Amino acid sequence: MCPRPAIPLNLPSAVTNDPDVFFPVGRILCIGRNYAAHAAEMGDHSRQPPFHFVKSPWALRSDHGEITVAYPPKTQDLHHEAELVVALRHGGRDISPEDAHRHIWGYALGLDLTRRDVQAQAKQQGRPWAAGKDFDGAAVCGPVSRVEATGELTEGTLTLTLNGERRQTGELTDMIWNVREIIAYLSSLMTLQPGDLIYTGTPAGVGPMVPGDVATIGLTGLPAVTVRMTDPL
Ligand code: MN
User: Fold this and answer.
1) Which CATH superfamily hosts domain 13-230?
2) pLDDT bucket at 44, cuts 50 / 70 / 90
3) Average pLDDT over every residue of 191-217
4) Of 40, 91, 175, 183, which is the most buried if we count CB atoms within 10 A?
């Protein structure tokens, strides 16, 4: 007899730049304050150890072409955070920075969408960030490009343009913790798994997105990603 699942479970997946290949997503691990200028705009002026938070895989919104996200409930101040996303091919624990790049399947451009008002209240109350960070559409992810095609991405200019105006600009070389160090850090805390996505932090210039806004995320070496915010569902 063939065992049957008790309930149907459709695990989310990200699209890739090969239309016939999708990338199944396990955890979504997000690094906070990884560019000095953004840390400063959030009130943090010192070099701190890395920290992270988690979004559930069902927060993922991934598509080819223009990605649409419905404005989420329970916020009056939704912010865009443009980020380089790293998709893991291999898991592991206590991965060294020297070996970390071998665990990368590919890269994408995405948005760590944030209910800034909810997050600010959580910070003030000393509560978790979950309600500010984890909701439908909170993890926007463009097509994942294989590392074999891009090479290891260690430099380039990450940008976000909102309705044609440049809002965010940062150099990957200005990351406080680089991608290899991030993988090493996360793998010291938990066993990483194939299918984990890592959002690597956002440069300065975060700000609100409202219905009707169109954001374009760019980085040297990756195809640009366009995101349209639509009315609440
Ligand atoms: Mn972020």
Assistant:
1) Fumarylacetoacetase-like, C-terminal domain (3.90.850.10)
2) confident
3) 98
4) 183
Distance 203 CA to ligand 1 centre (A): 9
CA of 80 to the centre of ligand 1 (A): 9
Residue 219, both tokens: 């980085």
Cite the beta strand spans of 151-193 per DSSP E. 157-162, 165-171
Collapsed DSSP state (helix, strand, coil) of residue 36: helix
Rounded to the nearest angstrom, the distance between the alpha carbon of 192 and the centre of ligand 1 is: 19
Q: Break the chain into its structural domains and give their ranges.
A: 13-230
Cβ neighbours of 93 (radius 10 Å): 11
Give the distance (Å) from ligand 1 centre to CA of residue 155: 19
Q: How far is the CA of 202 from the centre of ligand 1 (A)?
A: 5
Model pLDDT for residues 92-149, shown as the tens digit of each residue: 999 999 999 999 999 999 999 999 999 999 999 999 999 999 999 999 999 999 999 9
Whether the CB-CB separation of 185 and 34 falls below 8 Å is answered with no
Residue 46 vs residue 92, higher pLDDT = 92
The pair of structure tokens assigned to 53 is: 């938070």
Report the separation in Å between the CA atom of 8 and the middle of ligand 1, taken as the mean of its atom positions. 31
Token pair for residue 181? 């160090």
State in Å: Cα 151 to ligand 1 middle.
24
Contact indicator for 111, 227 with CB cutoff of 8 Å: yes
Whole-structure pTM value:
0.96
Ligand 1 mean position, distance from CA 7 (Å): 33
